[in-house]
Amino acid sequence: MKRLAPRSDDRCFIRRLAIVAIALAFCLFVYRIGDIVLLAFGASLVAILLATVADWLAARSKMPRALALAIASLLMLAIFGLMGWLFGAETGAQATQLWQTLPNDWEKLRQAMESNPIGRLFADSFRQGSQGSRFAHLLLSAGWSSVEVAANFLIIVIGGIFFAAQPDIYRRGILHLTPHGYRAVAADAMDDLVEALRLWLLTQLVSMTMMGVMIGLGLWWSGVQAPAALGLLGGLSEFTPYVGPTLAMLPAIIMALVGKGSIWGVVGTYVIVRIVQVHFITPLISQRLVSVPAGLYLFLILAMGVAFGGFGIFFAGALSVAAYTLTIRLYVRETIGDDVALPDDE
Question: Transmembrane segments in this chain: where (predicted)?
């Protein structure tokens, strides 16, 4: 009796098992090289931004796209250089001052809180939460050396220029890896993804600029030390919605609580800035933006931070938009069949 002899349906089972094993191995590989994947994703964001500017220049001036891309790349580098030249010395000095004084200010605030029972309760809760929460520990310990930040930035910019110079090569490469029957769906998904990220990038750049200027002016009026550095921090923090702006408020609040500025002015600055953002800036610039639900957005950002560290937190906003867009296109629309609008449908 051959009860253990191979059956005809074993081949199908083994094939499915092999597919699952390969998929799991690929996911593990991507996780292990997460920093490289995030660098490539950052380069893709730069490529989308450069391509947007280059296509606009080529359409308006009728110049070749290669020349328009070169101008866009030089323009981007010139803007970064101008910002460094105009604000580097002053903001850098203020940032150094902020970095040196903030630990002492926090220690003074902690000692003041422990001088009364209610404040001691909050201090103990914060200490226990920081020790017990992996994400809180990540935020408190995250930080890159200036050399590492500069190297990553250089890699992202160079990679972005390469991607923007020949986008069709990479698009065709992805399609070649897709089975013939699904290539049309994959092409539509890539178009949706690029459009969603393009709109997200443009709105974030506008929001970052306006928020940074308003926060810096408000903190300067409140008498807080290093207003330019804190304004720059507030503007850059908008790249990671919800989590970034919340963390960016803490240095100014801590400094104001130990007497280095008006606490009411600081609180009023952030309240007024958020009101202006919610009621004026966001509705004006986000009319066609992919609308990720706030709760989902927040926990996607936290998940990216836990999975990939500080690097993941920085790109968590864009990654959340990308994941949400692909889910809507590939699963909700193409698999289930529900009609959900995406930015390029308008």
Answer: 12-31, 37-59, 66-87, 142-165, 199-222, 242-259, 271-290, 296-324
